[in-house]
Amino acid sequence: xxxxxxxxxxxxxxxxxxxxxxxxxxxxxxxxxxxxxxxxxxxxxxxxxxxxxxxxxxxxxxxxxxxxxxxxxxxxxxxxxxxxxxxxxxxxxxxxxxxxxxxxxxxxxxxxxxxxxxxxxxxxxxxxxx
Length: 130
Prior knowledge:
This protein is of the alpha+beta class. The protein has helices at 16-19, 22-26, 104-129; strands spanning 5-15, 32-39, 42-46, 51-55, 59-66, 77-85, 88-96.
């Protein structure tokens, strides 16, 4: 890990658009799997298909949610990050976890841990810029 890294872990990605499709609602909730990295300035997701960096100061909302039970019968949590990019609002649903074979309980613990750290880092950044 780089010295600037606050937290890093494997992560599944989904979008609100995908969750509104038949496949996303009933069968497969994710659109990608990659690596999630949090630094003091940004959150980064990198995979074979995607790579993006979200500056923490562009985040307008962070909240927790539960995927539809039609696709995941056991309550599986995610972190929804809403941010602005070039004047447009975007939302991503992130499910950080050690492995795709982790239990729902362990994955939910990981989501809660990330949510706590993200809330803290973003709140500190917003306090600095206020």
